[in-house]
Design goal:
By secondary structure, this protein is of the alpha/beta class. It has three domains: 295 residues, P-loop containing nucleotide triphosphate hydrolases (Rossmann fold, 3-Layer(aba) Sandwich), CATH 3.40.50.300; 120 residues, Domain 2, N(10)-formyltetrahydrofolate synthetase, CATH 3.30.1510; 83 residues, Formyltetrahydrofolate synthetase, domain 3. The protein is 34% helix and 20% strand. The strands form six sheets. Strands 1, 2, 3, 4, 5, 6, 14, 15, 16, 17, 18 and 19 form a twelve-stranded mixed β-sheet that branches. Strands 20-22-23-21 form a four-stranded mixed β-sheet. A three-stranded antiparallel β-sheet has the order 7-12-13. Helix 6 runs antiparallel to helix 10, helix 8 crosses helix 10 and helix 14 runs parallel beside helix 15. The chain is globular.
């Protein structure tokens, strides 16, 4: 993409409209709008005069991610802009960025090039404070729990069997395991503790799956944070603090309204990761968007094996919604990397590597079809792509019977003509008849749900459960939680639980090392491989290139 300005330069040069204008054009009445400065606002769904949900949902997913980049958020924004340009009433629903990856390796999450949501710097940093509220609610709960133990422990909580951690919206490996309460009798009860990143908090998951404020309070009360000495689960409702946690979240739970460079309205709200959580924006934001638009373009994190599967089996199940089409984003660069090409050699045309790597895309596309939804492949164009490579990939999709289009939404923008062909295919797919179905019924055992995902979506031969995981399976059955869906915590880089195995591997086993019941969110997390719920920073964090200029404008933010 040489010769073009940076994402930040493009964002700063864009004409951004007052958010009130965007809201009025989207049909949001003034009583429902709460301004956060000139270019951001929250929407109070309870005051919205729009009718009940009716808009159709387009889910954007992707092939397995690589360091070469796939551009899922960029494609989401560009596609929505192109659909709006074609005359559809469209709204975007995205997740909020987490500060950990912004300052670490991934960078921002507002799209790129001429397909961005604005103001990108504010969204990528503190935005409207939602993540701070979720962090505060999570840590308030743990402060109240430890205080309860210190003040006499009427609930008989066993400090050795705590299943809830404190959180921080930062990549900080040093906090994964800590000891608290040291320093004498007045400093609390000593116990082993630790931190997760905020996006892995169950409160984040509850926040994103609640249907309204009342449901939020109910789900918060159902959270299991530990066990008693006789191994009985202890919940937030037992402690009696679900009301206080709801109070801390009552403003944050309202969706955030922003806009794209082209002026398409976007709701950016909630942000669980898809490798350690369920990877979708808030259900409240998606349903609010459906009340305001005929088409809602939303995104699920990482590849279709993670975010999309969780959208279908968790979010869609709890929200009573079904995607009308699924876009699977792929790039020539990433496919060649899946085929064995090193990152520094991706600019050289290599049809053999492309042919080898396309097996990864094949598995993702066919997985989408298992849910009864029409897939459309979006080939996100990079300036280094050779025309022969793009032609080969389009021909491959045609031979597979899959609709596909090249989208140049980074360089030409969805507001231009960069996504017109993709938008036309998606609009056609949305109108096609579909028979959406979940991958598994809830009455399957947790063990069988995990096996179904591993075999049907990942292509595994089977699943190996560690001794602690088998013990947890028995606890889940005994406590009546076996009817919950499963949320797989797995590396995003591979269909296996080994990040180094690229492409579409065969002949492997998924290793489940532990199971974490998330009774408030309403799913069972299966921890596989070496996936961490508190990431670390890379050798050269993105923060090293960030600064502000003399006028207070951001520098180095992507």
């Amino acid at each position: 993409m040489s010769g073009l300005p940076s994402d930040l330069e493009i964002a700063r040069a864009a004409r951004i409209r007052p958010i009130g204008e965007i809201a009025a054009a989207a049909g949001i009445n003034a009583d429902a709008l709460e301004l956060y400065g000139r270019y951001k606002a929250k929407i109070d769904p309870a005051r919205l005069e729009a009718p009940a949900p009716y808009g159709k949902v387009v889910l954007v997913s992707a092939m397995s991610p690589t360091p070469a980049g796939e551009g899922k958020s960029t494609t989401t924004v560009g596609l929505a802009d192109s659909l709006a340009r074609a005359g559809h009433k469209v709204m975007i629903a995205l997740r909020e960025p987490s500060l950990g990856p912004v300052l670490g390796m991934k960078g921002g999450a507002t799209g790129g090039g001429y397909s961005q949501v604005l103001p990108m710097d504010e969204i990528n940093l503190h935005f409207t404070g939602d993540f701070h509220a979720i962090t505060s609610a999570n840590n308030a709960l743990m402060a109240l729990v430890d205080n309860h133990i210190y003040q006499g422990n009427a609930l008989n909580i066993d400090p050795r069997r705590m299943t809830f951690k404190r959180v921080l919206d930062m990549n900080d490996r040093s906090l994964r395991e800590v000891v608290i309460g040291l320093g004498g009798p007045t400093q609390g009860v000593p116990r082993q503790d630790g931190f997760d990143i905020t996006v892995a908090s169950e409160i984040m998951a509850v926040f994103c799956l609640a249907t309204d404020l009342s449901d939020l309070r109910t789900r918060l009360g159902r959270i299991t944070f530990g066990y008693t000495y006789d191994r009985t689960p202890v919940t937030v409702a037992d402690l009696g603090v679900e009301g206080a946690l709801t109070l801390l979240l009552k403003e944050a739970v309202k969706p955030n309204l922003v806009q794209t460079i082209a002026g398409t309205p976007a709701l950016v709200h909630g942000g669980p990761f898809a490798n350690i959580a369920h990877g979708c924006n808030s259900l409240i934001a998606t349903q609010t968007a459906r009340r305001l638009a005929d088409l809602v373009v939303t995104e699920a994190g990482f590849g279709a094996d993670l975010g999309a599967e969780k959208f279908m089996d968790i979010k869609a199940r709890y929200g009573g919604l079904a995607p009308s089409a699924v876009v699977v984003v792929a790039t020539v660069r990433a496919l060649k990397m899946q085929g064995g090409v090193a990152k520094d050699a991706l600019t050289r045309p290599d049809l053999a590597a492309l042919e080898a790597g396309v097996e990864n895309l094949r598995r993702h596309v066919h997985n989408v079809e298992k849910f009864g939804v029409t897939p459309v492949v979006a080939i996100n164009k990079f300036s280094s792509d050779a025309q022969e490579e793009l032609d080969w990939l389009l021909a491959w999709c045609h031979a597979e019977g899959v609709q596909a289009a090249v989208a140049d939404v980074w360089g030409r923008g969805g507001g231009g003509d960069g996504g017109d062909e993709l938008a036309a295919l998606v609009a056609k797919a949305v109108d096609a008849p579909g028979k959406f179905r979940h991958l598994y019924p809830l009455d399957l055992s947790v063990e069988d749900k995990i096996r179904t995902i591993a075999q049907e979506i990942y292509g595994a031969d089977g699943v190996d459960f560690s001794v602690p995981a088998l013990k947890r399976l028995a606890d889940i059955e005994r406590n009546g939680w076996s009817g919950l869906p499963v949320c797989m915590a797995k590396t995003q880089y591979s269909f296996t639980d080994d990040a180094s195995r690229l492409g579409a591997p065969k002949g492997f086993t998924i290793h489940v090392r532990d199971l974490l019941p998330k009774t408030g969110a309403g799913f069972i997390v299966a921890l596989t491989g070496a996936v961490m719920t508190m990431p670390g920073l890379p050798p050269v964090p993105a923060a090293l290139r960030m600064d502000v200029d003399a006028d207070g404008n951001p520098v180095g933010l992507t």
